[in-house]
Each structure stands twice: as C-alpha cells, then as structure tokens.
Amino acid sequence: MNTIQILIADDDLEIAQLIKIYLTNEGYQVLTASNGIEALDLIAKESIQLIILDVMMPEMDGLEVVRSVRAEHGIPILMLSAKAEDMDKIMGLTTGADDYMVKPFNALELIARVKSLLRRSIYLNAQIQAVQDQDVIEIHGLKISKKSHTVMVEEQSINLTSTEFDILYLLMSHPGRVFSAEAIFEKVWKDRFLESNNTVMVHISKLRDKLESELGGAKLIQTVWGVGYKIDP
C-alpha cells in the first residue's frame, strides 16, 4: 500500500472529490482543503509529499500559497487553473510551481503528471541526501567543506565571512531548491524575519561578487524572481 500523502487544495468541491477518488484508487492517501489558509495549516501539520493546488481560491490564492510553501519546503506542486493564457502558466511556474494544468483536464493525464512529479522528487531528494552526507560538496567546480569551513576553486581558497559561508552551504547542500529571503534569514541568523529586512539581499550580493570573481564570471547563485535564490546541481 502506497503511503504517499497528497494534498488537494481547491474550493470546487466536485473537482476536489473527483481527483481524490482517482488518487485514492492509485493507493495514495489524500487530504483536501477548500482555501489557501486551510491548505497551509495542513502542510504545517501533516507530512505532505505533493500538492495539487487551484490558482483561484478564497482566503488566500494559489500563488500566495506557493510562495509560502517555497519559503520552507521543496514539496512538488501541481497547479490547476481555468486560465489557459501563457502568462498565467508562466506566472504559476515562476512563482515556484513544478507543473501546471488547465481546467477542464483529463484525470488520467493528471495522475500521470502526479506520478512523474513524485518520481522526480524522490530522485532529487536522494541526490540531496547524498550531497548532505558528504564532507565536501562540489558544484560547478566550487568545493565547500563544513568540517574545515573552507571554500575552494581549483585549490584556491575563497575568503568568506561566517554568514556568507552559512548562506552558501545552505544553498549548495540543497541543490535545485529555492530558498526565500525569509527562509535564508531564519535558517542562517536563527531569528524572525521582518518584511522590510534587506539583510539577505545585501549578503547574497557580496557573496555573488566574491564567487563570480573566482569563477570567471559564472553566476552560481540564481535568482528566481518573486520567490528566492537557488544553486542548480
């Protein structure tokens, strides 16, 4: 029996129930939410492996839910919308969703996409765990060691502050995952993030300057606009 738990967040109860029936028949455990606030509450309390999320919902829309989830989690997100325009799809994907389907949709195609996202997530999590188990993490020629607290490029040491090192290690130990400024601040500074706080942006800018200087201009730290920062594997 499959123990994977999936959350469906959609205020259209008929669609949510239909999706739940198909997923349950596939052996998944399914939770449902009718608005964004309820969805975030379930995500905080339960072990969710995938989210199916409607864009237009009361209390908090799907895009806001994606932003909140991406501040803390790398859970795969499949967005649903009645809007078929390319810009709507682009907005959903750039906000942090992993896939996007337009209503009405073929239920069997939705199941196929769910399985694909779960396979990708399992593979990526295995890669991340393998990276985190290493003493030295290497990405695109940059090596970082938490044990010796060093960062190297071709045996050349890069001088970073303790905070810059911690930010870099966080991103490199979770390749491909997007961290919001809020998540970075709370994990590195161990303090509550204030909305007007630009501390992370300043440190990221200085860190980028140092890395790009040693990497021949290569941009290791990527900005995902409106979401946060990441380092691709």
Describe this protein's structure.
The chain is of the alpha/beta class and 233 residues long. It folds into 2 domains: 5-130, Rossmann fold, CATH 3.40.50.2300; 134-230, Winged helix-like DNA-binding domain superfamily/Winged helix DNA-binding domain (Arc Repressor Mutant, subunit A, Orthogonal Bundle), CATH 1.10.10.10. The protein has 8 helices and 11 strands. Helix 6 crosses helix 8 (199-214). The chain is elongated and about 60 Å long. The model has no long low-confidence stretch (mean pLDDT 86). Residues 134-233 bind DNA.
Give the strand order of the largest sheet, numbering strands 1, 2, ... along the chain.
2-1-3-4-5
**Mean pLDDT, nearest integer?**
86
Oligomer: single chain
In helices, the fraction of residues equals 40-55%
Quick synopsis:
This protein is α/β, with parallel strands linked by helices. The protein has 2 domains: 126 residues, Rossmann fold (3-Layer(aba) Sandwich); 97 residues, Arc Repressor Mutant, subunit A (Orthogonal Bundle).
